[in-house]
Fold this protein.
Amino acid sequence: MHAGVESTMRITFKLFATLGDYLPAGAKFNQVELDVEPDTSVQSLVERFGLPPRLVHLVLVNGHYIKPEERPTHRLKAGDVLAIWPPIAGG
């Protein structure tokens, strides 16, 4: 038995505006709790949910902006909140 070794960790995944359509059925308030593998990257979740790259504009982990070039290597930790917004049109 390995004490303290977990096979998954829980994060909160939030998608806003038109991206909300990509959340699983039953998601409430544009968010869902996910169990993910340790060392899951931001980019791997974007791909897992089939988010169109052109719609992945503003990406925050715990309120901190993650630059596009950092998304493939930024690893999520247990309890993290990943929030993604599409480009906002308006004027």
Q: What stands out?
A: The two ends are 59 Å apart (CA to CA). The chain is about 10% helix and 25% strand.
